[in-house]
Structure to design on (719 residues):
């Protein structure tokens, strides 16, 4: 009988009613023991205690069961990373402008040996050594005698890893090591660069874009260069051929889109394998295009004439007396290569590559104007490229008449070919100086730069460049790339040797194509530089640029034109037309 | 209300109270189900890890294949092989023409009367290239 007045019909049910019902229920359960009593109070107490213990255990197990169920159902499973596991890498892939792979991280392996887990050291020794030629027997013996896990060898390829793993040797284990791999080997290696074993860039784009490459590793997004691998292959091939043919000390080339400043190709010889740069001599690792400076010679006349025309000092027809060498004070006299010239108009000073005419123009301009323009062309600073190798020029300490007269045709000032290409880009793109870039420009991207000459002067310089190829007396008239409307300028700077000019040359050719059309038309600059080319019978003993750098650049332009979408002017095929084709065009466009 | 509860606690089976047997049975089922559930989850986890390993392995293989492909498709290598095995040479400016000039090409071909069209061959000593 319940001591609590229990009335289920009472409505509404309140909390106090519920509590009373619960107490009543508990009381009834307890009374149930009472009801089942068979003998004495001691038995009742025992049963009550047993029930209590049972209830406690049941509660504990129910609690544990619920907790286990919760853990099983809702514990963190890491499913979100399992969906697309990302391989460990330190740097993003490097690809060219069309997405071709240039550099990537591949999983290599480090080999570890723990002698404490090895059953048969002789077996381990005899099976490991033949598979690891780079591993010395002494090193392995030391590891096998050590009483700890030892790092034995790194940089194992997946094939090496599989071969050793298949041996099933106890105590031999691996750890993954991401390694930078350059599948193209010696292609574009100076532009791409290389990294240290920790994945930090040491040279080229790897160093210039180090932060970008590390940031891209987390997302798996590649970093795209402006490089066009097809253009690069053609440039590098021709530069290497020229280096071999003319026995040069070094050779280099660059291809640039003059409107975007994109470096489409860059080559420097001698080369090296970026997969194992330590095996190459230090000079091979040098990107001569960016990191070496030279007196580049007459290619500087473009700057001198641009200065004269842009400042209104002269016109294309301004005459210059070149009949006698130009002597300034006690300086070295300035000569021309003997072409029988006595009086040249300004445009002829360019096409005949007259040192005297260029020197006289510099004297007319004066040191201050000359310095201002040359500084604006970026010739007094390292080329503002992302390439950290970009070398600072060697410039004169003072700008007296003798100095500026020699600077006018590229003597007394040493710049890198990259600086030269950057300055040429400014003159040929409408007059805006822009840094050359390693990365691909976005469509419609407008680069900001500073205006260094007027658009009209830029257009005139393009015509002069073209005239230098079409004029029979032009210094680039031997250029044999029909139909590409090439413009260009040769430069043969004497190479300093022990304080005076020696017999070797630095031969350069800067070519632009197509040189016709509006100033905003697509246009590409090719600069080829050969360091100390040697005379050959077929060059009749000459070592000037017209015999080596110019034809090399011509072949480069001929080969890369289809890749760049430059249409040729159709070449006539009839006998008469063939004869006409051999005749140079008249005048400038 | 009280009677059924009392009956539950009073009923016995071979000396054991039904309520005790029921509680023990529930406990056994609970323990076994938790064990089975955990064991099953462990198996699923192991399978997922196997799949992860497989994916990672395949990705490594893909990366290796990408690198090999990049090497094999390098323009410089294709060019070298084309010159070496197919005796190919870069097209010259004379190999390009316009539609308007086709008539001249045709006349030229008629005049020359070639026996058959010849593939472009690399002239002796000329440069390599495509």
């Amino acid at each position: 009988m319940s001591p609590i007045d229990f009335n289920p019909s009472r409505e509404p049910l309140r909390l106090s009613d519920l509590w009373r019902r619960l107490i009543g229920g508990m009381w009834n359960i307890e009374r149930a023991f009472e009801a089942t009593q068979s003998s004495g109070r001691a038995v009742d107490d025992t049963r009550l205690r047993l029930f209590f213990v049972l209830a406690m255990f049941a509660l504990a197990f129910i609690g544990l069961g619920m907790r286990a169920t919760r853990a099983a159902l809702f514990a963190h499973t890491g499913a979100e990373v399992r969906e697309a596991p990302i391989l460990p890498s330190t740097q993003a892939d490097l690809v060219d402008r069309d997405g071709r792979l240039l550099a990537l991280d591949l999983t290599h392996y480090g080999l570890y040996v723990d002698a404490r887990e090895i059953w048969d050291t002789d077996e381990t020794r005899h099976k490991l050594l033949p598979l690891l030629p780079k591993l010395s027997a002494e090193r392995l013996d030391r590891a096998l005698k050590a009483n700890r896990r030892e790092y034995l060898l790194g940089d194992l390829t997946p094939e090496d890893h599989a071969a050793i793993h298949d041996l099933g040797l106890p105590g031999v284990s691996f750890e993954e090591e991401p390694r930078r791999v350059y599948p193209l080997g010696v292609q574009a290696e100076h532009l791409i660069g290389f990294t240290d074993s920790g994945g930090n860039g040491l040279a080229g784009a790897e160093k210039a874009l180090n932060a970008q490459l590390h940031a891209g590793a987390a997302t798996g997004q590649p970093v795209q260069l402006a490089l066009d691998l097809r253009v690069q292959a053609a440039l590098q091939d021709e530069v290497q051929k020229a280096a071999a043919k003319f026995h040069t000390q070094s050779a280099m080339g660059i291809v640039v889109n003059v409107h975007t400043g994109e470096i489409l190709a860059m080559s420097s010889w001698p080369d090296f394998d970026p997969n194992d740069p330590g095996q190459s001599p230090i000079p091979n690792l040098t990107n001569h295009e960016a990191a070496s400076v030279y007196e580049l010679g007459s290619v500087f006349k473009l700057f001198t004439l641009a200065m004269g025309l842009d400042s209104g000092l002269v016109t294309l027809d301004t005459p210059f007396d070149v009949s006698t060498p130009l002597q300034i004070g006690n300086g070295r006299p300035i000569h021309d290569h003997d072409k029988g010239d006595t009086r040249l108009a300004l445009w002829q000073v360019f096409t005949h590559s007259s040192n005297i005419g260029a020197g006289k123009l510099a004297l007319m301009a004066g040191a201050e104007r000359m310095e201002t323009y040359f500084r604006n062309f970026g010739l007094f600073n390292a080329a503002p490229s992302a390439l950290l190798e970009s070398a600072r020029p060697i410039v004169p300490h003072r700008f007296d008449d003798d100095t500026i007269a020699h600077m006018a045709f590229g003597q007394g000032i040493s710049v890198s070919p990259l600086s030269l290409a950057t300055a040429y880009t400014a003159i040929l793109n409408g007059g805006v100086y822009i840094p050359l870039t390693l990365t691909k420009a976005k469509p419609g991207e407008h680069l900001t730069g500073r205006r260094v000459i007027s658009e009209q002067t830029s257009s005139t310089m393009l015509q002069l460049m073209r005239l230098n190829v079409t004029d029979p007396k032009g210094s680039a008239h031997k250029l044999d790339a029909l139909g590409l409307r090439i413009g260009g300028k040769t430069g043969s700077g004497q190479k300093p040797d022990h304080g005076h000019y020696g017999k070797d040359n630095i031969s350069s050719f800067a070519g632009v194509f197509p040189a016709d059309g509006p100033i905003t038309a697509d246009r590409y600059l090719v600069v080829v530089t050969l360091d100390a080319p040697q005379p050959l019978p077929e060059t009749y003993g000459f070592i000037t640029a017209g015999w080596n750098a110019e034809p090399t650049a011509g072949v480069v332009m001929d080969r890369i034109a289809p890749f760049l979408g430059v249409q040729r002017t159709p070449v006539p095929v009839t006998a008469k037309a063939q004869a006409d084709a051999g005749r140079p065009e008249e005048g400038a466009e | 209300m009280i009677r059924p509860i009392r009956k539950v606690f009073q009923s016995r089976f071979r000396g054991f109270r039904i309520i005790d047997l029921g509680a023990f049975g529930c406990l056994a089922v609970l323990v076994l189900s938790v064990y089975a559930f955990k064991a099953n989850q462990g198996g699923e986890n192991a399978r997922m890890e196997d799949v992860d390993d497989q994916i990672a392995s395949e990705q490594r293989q893909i990366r290796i294949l990408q690198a090999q492909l990049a090497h094999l498709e390098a323009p410089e290598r294709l060019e070298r092989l084309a010159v070496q095995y197919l005796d190919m040479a870069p097209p010259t400016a004379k190999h390009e023409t316009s539609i308007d000039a086709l008539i001249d090409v045709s006349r030229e071909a008629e005049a020359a009367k070639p026996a058959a069209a010849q593939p472009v061959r690399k002239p002796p000593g000329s440069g390599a290239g495509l």
